[in-house]
Structures are given as structure tokens and as C-alpha cells.
Amino acid sequence: MISNDQQIQDTMKPTFFTIALLALIAGSLFAQTTKPGLAAGEAQEQPSRFPTELEVSLSPRDIVYATKDTTVLRMDIYRPQAQTEALPCLVFLYGGGFSSGSKDSKTTMEFCHQMTDRGYVVIAINYRHGMAGVKDKGFKMVRSLERAIGIAVEDLYSATAYLLKNAQAIGIDPSKIMISGSSAGAVTVLQADYELANRFERASLLPDDFSYAGVIAFAGGVFSREGRPDYERQPAPTLFFHGKEDRMVKYKSTRFFNIGFFGSHALTKRFKKFGFPYVTYRFEDMGHEMAVLPMQHHLTEINNFISSCVLEGNHCRIDSTFVDHGLPRADYGNWNLNRLYK
Length: 342
Known about the structure:
It is built from 10 helices and 12 strands. It is α/β, with parallel strands linked by helices.
């Protein structure tokens, strides 16, 4: 793995991974140029060359990984320019309350570049926004949120299946695919690992023997209809970041009989009880800001988690609370769901 201070040489020649990846992109681009109604063998206009960005950065953008409900889902691939071997892969999902957001946001792009600089192939994906335009209240909102979480998980599984199929071309180690997300993205990655461990129906999109190598959640949680979440198989090593005053994504839990949402505090208790590997960072006097700030101020902790708990396979069990952290507050830190879906 590339160390934090190792300089990447921009002048190195393209590697096998570069050539294979460009071939993959070529197929994708040519496939998208097919015009409806063309007979077999009929000539069609083809792009004369790859976009300059693909040639220069070797980090392709807007690769189609699936089409769902007429929605074309795309991913961006960030790769170290000096890559010479298959690398661990980190998939990232942005936040936005399942109603908005994009892989092209400044925060997402900066985080992806930071992690690529640390030696990982990083994949940023778009996913369907199941809460877009929804004005439900009360229990109807719960059902709408459950549906939105479910389709986001399905999209993440589809993106993962695409990565597994094209791992060699992209230059990733399929046994070291990690997932990470912010806010709604954090809920999605935690839910995806929970459903995969329990082999929910959606998990059939992935091979039976597949498991994520690690999970990193910036203010996330798990929705359950079976009370406190249980795991039939051991979940991936998980890194939790959460503000203790978060009103948007509950830090503890909220429950009505067996239906509930379980935040980082509640999940950490379950991981502790069953001996699952985890690292939890709690932040006093912070709200939903922790959906963003760790990507800017705690890159060392993130990289250490990946190095030790994921790649080296250490059975991490760390629970720390930051009190005098000096992190900035933000208006959105005090938001709740009513404010988001008003």
C-alpha cells in the first residue's frame, strides 16, 4: 500500500491496468452510441477518440454500471496514476437524505482524491433517490424511508457486482472491496452489510460467498423490522463516526415495537456483545456535522482503520469519545428529518 508521504510519479508509463480499463471504457462508450433501430451490421458513427480526461487522468467518469426504473446509474473511478498491481477498493456514497445529492459534489470529489493519494482505487457512485418529492408524514414517512434505503442498497449491490465482474480491468482486488458513505450514504452501507450478513433477498445480486472487506460510516445506522439488529454471519470490520447530538440520523436508536432505526451507539453495543470487529469514534457536542467532518479532519484515523483492521486483519475493538475536538459547528448539524422533508 502507498504510504501517506510517498510521492506518486506522474511520469510513469501506463500499466496493464490502464490499458485494460481504457478497453473497458471503450466498450461502454461504443455501446452507448448504438442508435435505436439500426439493423445488424449497419454502419453507425463511432467516437474517433477517447475524451482527453480519460487519456490524461486515467480516472474515468460517468461509467454506466446499471439502469434501474429508467434511471441510468453511473460511477466515477479514481485511481493512483502509478498503479502497478491490483489495489484495495473503496466505494463511496454521498449523503442527501435519499432525496438529493451527487457523486460530483466537491466534498465527495475531495475525499475520493484524498483516499486515492493513500493508495486505494476509489469508486464514487450515484444511486436512486427514493425520497425525492416525498411529502409523507408519520408512519407513512417511515415506510417511504424504508423503501428509499432498500433501493439505495440495491444500487450499491449492483455497483459491487459490476466491480466484481470488471475487477481485473479496473485494477482492484475483489477480496478487498470496502464501502463507505456519508449520512444517507452511511445508512446505505451499514444497511447493505447488515442485509448481506443475513442474506436478505436483495443480497442475491452478489455471489453467495462474497463479503465486504470493511465498512466506514459517517453518521449512519440500520433500519430493522426485527428489533435490535442481529447478524447471521459476521459483519465486516466497521468504522463508525457519529455526533452524540445528531438529530438527523439518530446516534442511539428509535423504536416502535420491532420496527426501529439503530444508530452508531446502538450498533456498537451489538458489535461489542457478539465480538465483531469495530472502531467507534463519538463526538461530544456535535450533531450531523460528523457526516462530513471526518472526511476532512480524520483521514489518519480512516487510513489507520483500513491498514490495521481491514488489510492486516487485526480484530479491532476500539471505542473512543472526542471531547475537546475543536471541530467547527454548522447550521445543518442541528437539522432533523422534519426540517429535511418539509
